[in-house]
Write a structure and sequence with these properties.
CATH architecture: 2-Layer Sandwich
Structural class: alpha+beta
InterPro entries: GrpB/CoaE, NT_sf
Shape: globular
Strand order of the largest sheet: 1-2-5-4-3
Number of helices: 6
Largest sheet: 5 strands, mixed
Number of strands: 5
CATH topology: Beta Polymerase, domain 2
Protein name: GrpB family protein
């Protein structure tokens, strides 16, 4: 059977891969915290999106609230995740200085992962993920968000996985992400298998 076009194999990045992607990222030493859902998160996203649009103007092709804070009723780290699409995420000179002038700091550079860039804001806490048009990962993020919005059982399962990962006391957000990755992967398989546009098993065979 063919695979879903957004399917990815289950892979957990190594510490070496994590370190290689980081740009002047400080070791915070603060355990990851998962908190109860805050109804103010969509408003905070709106304010942050407005800041990005003010900084970049028509360089913003698309901007979306993603991640757990975009799912009503879902426990989450109190960090807003935003997907931003620009003309070319690899062309940092075209957008990073303008965002830095607004207080954002470049923290992650991943040329081998769809030229992903991540800029960080500390107050309010936000991860701004930057992509180029046609990137698969923002589409995956939207499908994951929308699935959790509409499936209470899977939302509860994911919340439990997040709380279990946080209970491990990880001070590195990537280690926290790795710990819950098996559940995330399983959820993506359910999402892709149920996609009416691609009605087949999402995993490759043979």
């Amino acid at each position: 059977m063919p695979t879903h076009p957004l399917w990815r194999p289950f892979e957990i990045p190594s510490d070496e891969e994590i370190a290689a992607a980081r740009v002047n990222a400080p070791q915070r030493g603060i355990p990851v915290e998962v908190v109860e859902p805050d109804p103010a998160w969509p408003q905070v996203y709106g304010e942050l999106a407005a800041r990005v649009r003010a900084a970049l103007g028509d360089r913003v092709i698309q901007i979306e609230h993603v991640g757990s804070t975009a799912v009503p009723g879902l426990a989450a780290k109190p960090v807003i995740d935003i997907d931003l699409t620009v003309a070319d995420s690899a062309d940092e000179a075209a957008y990073v200085p303008a965002l830095e002038a607004d207080g954002w700091v470049l923290r992650i550079r991943e040329p081998d992962w769809e030229e992903h860039r991540l800029l960080r804001l500390e107050e309010p806490e936000c991860n701004l993920h930057v992509w180029s048009p046609g990137s698969a990962e923002p589409r995956r993020h939207r499908m994951f968000r929308d699935w959790l919005r509409g499936h209470e059982d899977d939302r509860a399962r994911y919340a439990a996985a997040k709380r279990a990962a946080a209970a491990e006391g990880f001070t590195d957000g990537m280690h926290y992400n790795n710990h819950k990755s098996p559940v995330v992967y399983d959820l993506y398989e359910r999402i892709f298998a149920a996609d009416p546009d691609h009605p087949h098993d999402p995993r490759p065979r043979g």
